[in-house]
Design a protein that fits this description.
875 residues, alpha+beta, six-stranded mixed barrel, 15% strand, globular
Amino acid sequence: MSLLSRFFNRWREPKLSQEFDDEIAFHLEQRVERNVREGMDVTAARAEARRHFGNVSLAREGMRQARVASWVDDFAADIRYAFRVFARQPVLTGIAVLTLSLGIGANAAIYSVLNAVLFRPLPFPDADRTVLVNERLRSGGGTSPTIPEILDIRARSRTLDVVTFFDTRDAQIDGGSEPAYVSTTRVDPAFLPLMGARPALGRLLTDADSAEGSARVVLLSDGLWRRNFGSAPDAVGRSITVNGASHLIVGVLPPAFTVAFIAGEPEMYLPYPLVPAYTQRSGEFANVRRVPTLARLKPGVSLDAASADLAAVAAGLIAEHPHLYAEFGGAANFVIDVQPLRAAVGESGQRPLYMLFGAVVLVLLIACVNAAQFLLSHAIEREPEVALRSALGAGRARLVRQSLSETLLLACSAGALGLVQAFGIVSVLRSQLPPMLMVGRIDVDFRVLGFVAALAFGTTLVCGLVPSLRFSRPLLRPSLDARGSTTRRSRARQVLIAVEVALSVVLLVQAALLMRTVGVLQRAQSGFSPESVMALRIRGMAGGPALGTTYQQFLERISALPDLARAAMTGSVLPRFPDAPFTIVGNAETDAASPRQSASYQIVSPGYFAVLGIPFLQGRSFADTDTVGTTPVAIVNEQIARRHFPAGDPVGRQIRAGVGPRAATMTIVGVVGNVRPVMQNDDVSQLYVSYLQQSEPNMTVLVLPTAGRTVSLDAIKRAIWSVEPRQAVFSVVPLDEMLAQRVHGHRFVATILGSFAALACVMSVAGIFAVISYLTSRRLKEIALRRAIGAQHSDVLRLLSGQTFAWTLIGLAFGAGGAYIASRTVGATVPNVVPLDFWMVALTSIGYLIVVAIATILPALQALRVDPASALRAE
């Protein structure tokens, strides 16, 4: 009979009993008839049949065992017995369940994040065949293709079904009480269909919308449609002003559609203009590499085949346009390949998440050690009972099954409570996660529920291993002779304490390392003063020289406000990591090194350096006369001056820098001090150009009030609107707060890891305290007897805590070694981590040792307060 049938027969007991009786009666009657045919009378025939058949009750029980899964009843009995066992020690049971639930809940919460960021399929059709197209150098570094390259890939590739691209832009729209900022994505017409978009109203964007000379159109997100148009069905066909120009609304997307995993949360979609300035290699913006490119593999095409195909396309492009790829090292160094979009999405947060997941696994292991300590203490106390059950016929398998049933009850209770905790932890993580990890909605789904079930099962095996092994080797005489005594040393218990200590120290040291890193990064910033500076973002609507003139007027009106000390504008608030190649004109050494040297490239107004307190070392600042029609000028930092002009004055020399249309030869007019922002440990080359000579629509206004005074945001907005009423002002934030946000990722990882480390510390110390207290309470008579015959308090303390201290020191030693190994993983996972030193490990270990000492000595001191005579008289 199948196992499934035997299982369901458990609920057909009455009918099965009748079937058993009928079958037994049938066999008896067949035997009686045979005996009668052989000449026996009926009475003798029946007596012989009963003797031949044997015990009817045993036969019925054998038939039941063959047809019914009796383990169900045995398991239920084991669980009921486990409830009674744990009810005898409610405090210890509660601690064990709580610590296990915290470990399971933390693991479920972090797995929920991992599931959303790395495992859950992306929410659009054929996501498994969608790839990201990258250009990279074999020597290192990668980037996005240019528009002409994308068009060539689309025309020449034999393995890609769809090739499309997009970019993100800031925009502003009219309407409401003031101009409003909206996030915008410019898309190739094939992008939205690839992402599975279907219009809720109107239509999607088409090829005609991207053609030169086509009417301006826009596609709205569901949120913008509801907010600005009140969900009006006739919104399609209306006009909306975007960056000062009228656009026709051609469609509205459904509320469920999202591309947040690759393009943020755009509120509007505009057609990418496929005009000669972008599409022709001689165009002004043709060499700009800032458009992420997506493609869909043809059915049955592998990643390797697609990469080989694109490598051939790259070789063809280099052969046709060798001058464009000379700086990349030619075909031997330049390749185009593909990467699965699922792997690319969340790639920046992959390592920190795995590190956090490793941390919560350690927390769960500590919880398992606590539970194993608890179960082992129960096993030691119940040795006489187990020995007696073994003597009465219980086999080792039966005893182990009873032990695992108790552990399963403990783990399932903890799993249920941990699942409830996971919902709470996930809600907190959802609001605190840095943008690099926000790929999809983070929630507890069926995959997470399955993970929790697997954790409960795994926890059962881990926690029940040591007690089950002890149950499987019952020694009858020693156990019965030692009833009520726990003087025998438990090596397993001490080893578990050492393991718990080592795991806790590893977590504590890594948390201390990250917290120190955050502090060092914040203290490392230098060369400027963010105090009292307010930053406001704008996106200019004009183009070319007119944009610089508008910005100049903005600053004039803002600077005229009362209580304002200074105002300035900049393309980026602080210098970024170097990304613009440069050469010193007339310096053969820098010409040869140009592919390997770069500087941060920043567009600023003349007052930028004064607002941030960046000192001038030589020359002058920019002037209002440094416009498009005059000689291009630049200001360099001390790093460039010291490295490239060690014996001379850089002022008056020329430097060539920039990428694409911004590449220019400029005269150096000044040298300023080095600026080291947050997340930058060393001084780097920095280059500044005038905002009147290099136009940039995305700018930040920096305002510095007079000391002790404030300037209202409304006054600044009115000053800007007096020049351009349609100008939106957004992302208003104090500069020091903006800088703090730059270490948000580090601070998030450090905070979460620190929380888990603190949890591990509390769990391990509480577990040690609970187990030592329990075992000490079982030795009160022994302690009383030792004191009665002359033992001193120090002797009793050494008896109760000596071994625990010794194994704690062993655990600390292994934990310190593990911390050094783990710090290498942290260093490879989180950038700019400070090196681990001896004192950090030593101080963390000493602090933990003090806490463990208190937890170990307190039960012993409590035992010493018990009167020896009372303890000896007690039964």
